[in-house]
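User: Quick sanity check before I run a bigger batch. Here is a single chain. Can you write out its predicted 3D structure?
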Amino acid sequence: MTKLSIDGFCDSEFSELEAIFEKAIKSGFDDGAGFSLEVDGKEVLNLWGGYSDKDRKKVWQENTLVNVFSVTKAMTSTCALQLIESGKLDPNSLVAEYWPEYACEGKENTRVIDFLTHRAGMFGFQTPLPQDSWENWNLIVEKLAAQKPIRKPGSTQGYHAVTFGYLVGELVRRIDGRSLGTYFKEEIAQKFNIDFLIGLDDQEISRCADLLLLSGKPNPLIQFVLSLPNWLLPAQLKIVKETLNSEEYAKAFLEIMEVDENDTMPTDYPNSDSWRRAEIPAANGHGTASGIAKFFGILASGGSRDGKIMLQPDTIKEATTVKTMGPDVVLFQAPYKFGLGYQIDAPFSPIGMKDGMFGHTGIAGATGFADLNHKIGFGFTNNRQHSLGKLYRTSNNLAKKLYEIL
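Assistant: Done. Predicted structure follows.
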C-alpha cells in the first residue's frame, strides 16, 4: 500500500479548506477525492489525494477521472440551454415538435420544460433495460418514446435519475444532429478546456478511479422501518417507508436493468467499460474536480471566458429561476427545487445553502455548484459512496467553511 497523502495547491486565504480536505482523506472517510475552487474566475485551490483503486494501491492523480453521476445533469442541461438561447429549442413547445414518435400513450401534451424540470412522469422504464444495453442509445430512447408515462406529464415532480439524460439528450440529437456527449465535448469541454466527458475512449478509461459503491444489501435500520406498521412511525419515517415501497422509487432506482441468472440486478455496472464508453447524460459524466469547478466558475462569472460564450447572463438568470419545487414523489417527498435542469436547492447537500447557488449533486457524493453572488465555481469528486446521512459530509463541511471565510 502506498503512503496516503494529498497534493495540489491552495491559496493561503483558503488554508482551512485544505485542512478539511486533508482530514477527509487521511481519516479514511474518503478513499480518494478531488476538490477545486474558483473565485471570480481564478482557481484558488486544486487538491487531490487518497487512492483511486479498490485495492488502495494507486494514488489519486491530478487528472484522475471519476464518475460523478447526476452532476452530469448540469452539463446536459447547459447543452439544451445553448439550443434554447439560439432559438432552436423552445422550452414551452411540445416535445412532439422535435421528436414526433414521442407523442403517444398519453405523452402527447408533454412539453420540453417538463423534461428539464423532472415533471414528464417518465422517471423510469416500464420494463427494465436488457442486460449490457448501455451503449445502445437508439434502443433506449425508442423504448422511452413508446412507453406509457408512470405519472401524467406535468402533474407532479418526480426525479428522473437515469431517464433525464436520454430525454433531454434525444432532443439535442434531433435538433443538432450530434449526440449529447459529442455536443458537450465540441461546444463546451474543448472550447473551454474543461476536463469532463460523457462517453469515454480507452485512453480516458485508463484514467478512471474505481467506484466503491454501497453493496446494495438491505440496510438493517431501513429493513426495521419497513417492517413496522404505519401507526407506529413518525411522519417523516412514514414517508420514507411509503417511498421505498412505491412504484415511483422502484422505477427510478431499482428496476432499471433486467435481473441476471441469480434473479438480482447488477449493482457494479458503473465500473464496467461498457458503462464508461456509453453516453448516459444523466448519470455517467466523468471528470476532475478542477474541470467541474471551472465549468461552474464560468457560469458564475457571467457565462463567458476569454472571449468565448458558454451561456448569456439572461439565459443563466432564466435557467436558475425556480420552475418546480416538489414535493418530489421519487425523492421522499423532499422539496427539491429545479430551474431549467439545474438544482436550485438540494436538501442534504451544499446547494441551497446561500441565495444565488445552482448546480447538481451525484448519488456517490460528488458536488458541483456555481454561486452567482460570490462568483464561485465549486467542484468536489470522490469514489466512495456513503449512506444518505453521510453522503455529502465532506462537500458540506467544505462549503460551510468557505462561506465563513468569505
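Residues 72-85 form the longest helix (14 residues).

User: Great, the batch can go ahead then.
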